[in-house]
Structure formats: C-alpha cells, structure tokens
Amino acid sequence: MSTTTSNHIGRKISRIRELRGMKQETLAEAMGISQQSVSQIEQSENVEDEKLEKVAKALGGTKEAIENFSEEAVFNYFSNFYDNSTGQVYNNNCTFNPLEKFIEAVEENRKLYERLLKAEQEKISYLEKLLDKK
Q: Which domains does the chain show, CATH number per domain?
C-alpha cells in the first residue's frame, strides 16, 4: 500500500472527524451549519482560514493541527506493535504523533469550554439575583 502526502484539507477534516467517532451531523450541529455544508467542506481541497478555524474549534483542535494532520503518522503509530505470528517487534521510531497532539488539544479546549460555561452560568445566576431584589 502506498501512502501519499495529500494537502486536501477536506479529507483531513473528514479523517479527523472519523477518528474522533463523530458524524457529519454532529460536526454540523457544533458549527451551526447543515450536514450538507459539512459534506461540501470535506469535499473541498482548500478551505478558507476563517471556516477552517470554525471547523477546528468544533472538532476541539486548532487550524494548524488540521493542516499538519498526516495519515502516515497515524499508520506509523499503530504499526509499532508486537506481531505474535513472527515474534518480532515492529518499531518505526515515530517520535511525534499529530493525532495524540490533536487529542490533547481537544481535551484542553473541552476543559476551557467547561470553565467558561461555568463562569457564564455564575454570571447569569448573579444577574437573576439582582433582578429578584428589584
């Protein structure tokens, strides 16, 4: 199997979404657009920076993580396993896995979102108390 380096941003978005176990409908809902619009984005070789930022935010990562996503790095990561049939360990010495970095960024963004949401809920509660006093 031959892997070629592709800079097709739409395919990268699609693969990251699939690796996260997310459907197009879920991504569309997170972005506030239709599923058909997500499909069009995933078919596009190039995506405008502003739209790519929105996609990255909805996926919980960064624009750069999408742009630098490499299918080959993911395959290298999963190929570093012990083969029971031959008793050999296969190690491609992959020192950096962009998918792990993307998932870390997703987790950090999730934590940030939760903190922001809590702060907003506290503001709403405070304002409601002020209104009740009047």
A: 9-133 (1.10.260.40)
Q: Which two tokens stand for residue 8?
A: 């097709």
The token duo for 112 is: 């940030």
- Can you tell me the distance from the alpha carbon of 72 to that of 119, in angstroms, rounded to the nearest whole number? 40
- 13-28 pLDDT, tens digit each: 999 898 888 999 999 9
Question: How far does CA 125 lie from the centroid of its chain?
Answer: 32
Length of the chain: 134
What secondary structure letter does DSSP report for 131? H
**Are the C-beta atoms of residues 19 and 74 closer than 8 Å to each other?**
yes
The pLDDT value given to residue 95: 63
Which residue is associated with the tokens 């108390």? 129
**Residue 77 near residue 88, CB atoms below 8 Å:** no
